[in-house]
């Protein structure tokens, strides 16, 4: 979530589907002519640059130039090979004319040897820069820290343009035309919808690799957004770490190769344009472009120090030809400075996102992220425990007066930016905008807040279902928010089925004992209809699939009463420990029975049971960033390192009426990794064992999927409850090529489709003692439904598919390679091949 979560939040503020915003900011224009001081003739291809910035241009064949910049410094530099470099002062005027006269120099240029046979000398420079990466990469520091200022701005514009035949603007454009606005650089109205400023201390260390951001002050103003802690964390510098010395830049859940990374020669074409002065150093100015326009790669310019072959500046963008959804252009500008240790460090970064226009006359949108690093301290690592949690809010982070912000801003705000801060408050208070914000939040979060009662009603996704046991199922849920308490969180639901005419319910109380480290206690009581093989333990956090499983024909249903008490604590960076005691019942609504173990005195065949369990779950996610929003914590996911989960369950007989003593151990690992230009792979591994004799509902049931939808953590051609195991191992793999093939095909390249492959394998077995627990008939003489187990042959399914169809759809073709004749064993038809659909909103 990283960057993706934060960007989706901001784009939702722009009313998703309104693209390409432009900010209202002054554009300074400098023009003139560069001539030879002796002859008066124009000097072609002279370099003109604003001192200390990446903005620059070159003169034409007659020596004339025009330079536009959103920022100004005190002077411009004019240089050309064979002439002395001249510096001319700048004023604060919006338009300036500066004619430069250069004096020819008799000094010989230093000899440059090009060792490659032919080709542009830029390749020699980049090759040497890549070779010296470890000498200047800030990741080589044992630790570093700095003061960070970040600013994020979002605007809607381009809604006042004339339509053909003088037709009236559309309803959205008419609405936008009535809102308070500012004037952009083209003289057109622009509506600011989001502005934030954040000042924080950022810390990082290696061995072990850890980062921490302490948000000292933050202020956020936006449509549909309150100045909450979650937004303050999303707008900090933690999600704006762009190190071009790495092999790739991670943006929008995509890995974009760096022009000075390991794949530089495979992905890019380079051209040495000139030598210019940057931050008092003479640098090679080198342009780079992707070898294939459709590749997900940067286009732009790097400035390399001629003496040290180190990165000084970079100006890179990804245009709409690349395979990124909803983005017309992504632009990164970054300045690098030399530290006392000799390493380079990015001290100023600006990221601009132009959203894609769905129609030619649609409103436009733009979001700009700006961050600076000052007061950099090298090689003074803190204790490992200091970096937990990775993002922390100061107690008074909301309290700051205008004088404070003036003191921490690297530059004063322009008049248009001041105006935008004032206007955005007016925009957010327009009644129709308030309503639109509430609708967006309800659709994304699923809860409707009732402010007077300090509760949220929902989630909307579970409100209704229909199945053969309950008939029409209606459910009403609620939870308290921070207006109720910052320590206590109450939640629950009440459900009713019109066919079974039974009330179901859940009530949960959670107490936050500490926020640092995060420590909670909780109790829950639930009574509801469940089905074997589809439980919260194996569905995970797939809420959409959990809601869908309530529809249709429910086979092997049962009622369950569950009582749970738990304790959860963050033990250190990445380590989370959960301890729980759970007591639950099994009340089947289908023919079921089991024969108690031979050592039990009571050998009566039974059809229901109760279990009491002690549960220990250890989760290790060293690369995961957790955001804390008042009483709720949100994971942004892991990028480079795997996530491990070890869960041990001990069933205790006679504890709270428990009928069995048993053990269950399960270990899972999830990870993803980049395979260069080939795309990204995702995989998960799991294994477990139940070395005890228990009824089959307590064994491991892999998650099947009988729906028409593709489910990532399920076996998509396996029926519900098709196999049961007490020893098992699983492997699930997916590789997304990111359009590697389709991008190279002329017609398909425009569609931005992305090809992928999948594979899933399951091995398992059931002990003879667990097989023997199932009698032929129950106490009433009805035939008992048994279960099936895997043989020596593993269950295997493979697939291939296309992602990003219409930017939201995915189609998977899946083949079941083994147990294709399992109909004779289960009585339920097996599907050896299927086409499954799913929807993904990805960038």
Q: Helix share of residues?
A: 10-25%
Query: What proportion strand?
Result: 35-45%
CATH topology of the domain at 446-839: Porin
Cα-based radius of gyration, to the nearest Å:
31 Å
Total E-strand runs: 42
Which class do the helix and strand fractions yield? mainly beta
CATH C-level name of the domain at 446-839: Mainly Beta
| Amino-to-carboxy terminus distance | 12 Å
Based on the coordinates given, report the CATH architecture of the domain at 446-839: Beta Barrel
Descriptive report:
This is DUF5686 and carboxypeptidase regulatory-like domain-containing protein. It holds the Pfam family CarbopepD_reg_2. With 843 residues, the chain is mainly beta. Among the domains are: 253-312, no CATH class; 446-839, Beta Barrel (Porin), CATH 2.40.160.50. Helices cover 12% and strands 42% of the residues. The protein contains 13 helices and 42 strands. The protein has an 18-stranded antiparallel β-sheet that branches. Strands 9, 10, 11, 12, 15, 16, 17, 18, 19, 20, 21 and 22 form a twelve-stranded mixed β-sheet that branches. The longest helix has 15 residues, at 431-445. Mean pLDDT is 81; it is low at 1-24 and 107-118.
């Amino acid at each position: 979530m990283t960057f993706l979560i934060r960007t989706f939040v901001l784009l939702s503020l722009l009313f998703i589907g309104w693209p390409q915003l432009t900010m209202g900011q002054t554009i300074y224009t400098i023009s003139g002519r560069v001539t030879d001081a002796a002859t008066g003739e124009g000097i072609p291809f002279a370099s003109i640059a604003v001192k200390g910035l990446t903005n620059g241009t070159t003169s034409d064949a007659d020596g004339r130039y025009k330079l536009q910049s959103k920022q100004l410094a005190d002077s411009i530099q004019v240089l050309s090979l064979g002439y002395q470099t001249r510096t001319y002062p700048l004023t604060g005027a919006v338009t300036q004319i500066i004619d430069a006269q250069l004096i020819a120099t008799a000094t010989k240029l230093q000899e440059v040897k090009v060792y490659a046979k032919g080709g542009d000398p830029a390749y020699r420079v980049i090759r040497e820069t890549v070779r010296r990466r470890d000498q200047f990469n800030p990741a080589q520091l044992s630790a570093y820290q700095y003061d960070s200022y970040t600013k994020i701005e979002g605007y809607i514009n381009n809604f006042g343009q004339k339509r053909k035949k003088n037709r009236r603007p559309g309803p959205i454009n008419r609405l936008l035309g009535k809102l308070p606005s500012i004037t952009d650089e083209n003289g057109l109205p622009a509506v600011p919808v989001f502005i934030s400023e954040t000042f924080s201390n950022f810390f990082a260390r290696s061995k072990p690799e850890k980062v921490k951001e302490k948000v000292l002050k933050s202020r956020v103003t936006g449509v549909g957004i309150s100045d909450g802690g979650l937004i303050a964390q999303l707008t900090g510098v933690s999600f704006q770490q762009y190190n071009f010395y790495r092999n790739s830049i991670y943006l929008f859940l995509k890995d974009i190769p760096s022009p000075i990374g390991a794949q530089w020669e495979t992905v890019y074409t380079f051209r040495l344009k000139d030598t210019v002065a940057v931050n008092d150093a003479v640098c090679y100015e080198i342009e780079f472009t992707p070898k294939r326009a459709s590749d997900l790669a940067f286009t732009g310019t790097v400035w390399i120090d001629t003496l040290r072959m180190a990165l000084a500046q970079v100006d890179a963008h990804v245009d709409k030809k690349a395979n990124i959804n909803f983005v017309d252009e992504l632009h990164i500008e970054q300045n690098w400075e030399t530290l006392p240790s000799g390493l380079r460090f990015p001290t100023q970064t600006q990221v601009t996102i132009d959203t894609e226009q769905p129609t030619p006359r649609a409103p436009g949108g733009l979001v700009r992220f700006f961050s600076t690093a000052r007061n950099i301290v090298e090689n003074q690592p803190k204790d490992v425990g200091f970096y937990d949690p990775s993002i922390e809010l100061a107690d008074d982070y909301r309290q700051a007066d205008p004088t404070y912000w003036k003191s921490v801003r690297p530059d004063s705000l322009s008049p248009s930016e001041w105006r935008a801060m004032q206007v955005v408050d007016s925009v957010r208070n327009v009644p129709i905008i308030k309503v639109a914000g509430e609708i967006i939040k309800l659709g994304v979060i699923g809860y409707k807040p009732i402010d007077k009662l300090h509760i949220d009603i929902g989630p909307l996704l579970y409100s209704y279902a229909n199945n053969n046991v309950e008939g029409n199922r209606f459910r009403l849920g609620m939870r308290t928010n921070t207006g109720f308490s910052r320590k206590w969180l109450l939640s629950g639901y009440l459900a009713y089925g019109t066919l079974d005419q039974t009330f179901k319910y859940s009530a949960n109380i959670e107490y936050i004992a500490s926020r640092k480290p995060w420590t909670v206690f909780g109790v829950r009581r639930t009574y509801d209809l469940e089905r074997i093989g589809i439980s919260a333990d194996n569905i995970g956090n797939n809420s959409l699939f959990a809601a869908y499983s309530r529809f249709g024909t429910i086979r092997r249903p049962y009622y369950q009463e569950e009582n749970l008490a738990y304790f959860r604590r963050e033990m250190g960076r990445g380590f989370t420990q959960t301890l729980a005691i759970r007591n639950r019942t099994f009340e089947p609504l289908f023919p079921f029975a089991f024969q108690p173990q031979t050592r039990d005195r009571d050998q009566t065949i039974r059809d229901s049971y109760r279990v009491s369990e002690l549960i220990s779950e250890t989760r290790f996610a060293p690369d995961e960033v957790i955001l804390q929003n008042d009483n709720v914590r949100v994971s942004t996911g892991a990028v480079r390192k795997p996530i491990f989960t070890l869960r041990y369950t001990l069933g205790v007989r006679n504890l709270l009426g428990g009928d069995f003593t048993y053990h269950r151990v399960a270990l899972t690992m999830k990870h993803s990794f980049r395979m260069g230009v080939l795309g990204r792979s995702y995989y998960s591994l799991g294994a477990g064992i139940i070395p005890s004799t228990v009824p089959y509902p307590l064994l491991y049931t892999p998650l099947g999927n009988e729906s028409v939808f593709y489910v990532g953590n399920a076996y998509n051609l396996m029926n519900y409850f098709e196999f049961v195991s007490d020893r098992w191992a699983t492997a699930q793999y997916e590789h997304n090529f990111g359009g590697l093939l389709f991008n190279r095909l002329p017609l398909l390249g425009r569609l931005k489709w992305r090809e992928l492959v999948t594979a899933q394998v399951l091995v398992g077995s059931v002990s003879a003692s667990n097989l023997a627990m199932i009698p032929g008939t129950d106490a009433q003489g009805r035939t008992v439904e048994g279960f099936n187990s895997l043989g020596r042959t593993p269950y295997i399914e493979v697939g291939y598919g296309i992602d990003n169809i219409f930017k939201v759809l995915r189609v998977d073709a899946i083949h079941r390679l083994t147990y294709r004749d399992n109909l004779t064993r289960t009585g339920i038809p097996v599907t050896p091949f299927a086409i499954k659909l799913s929807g993904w909103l990805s960038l």
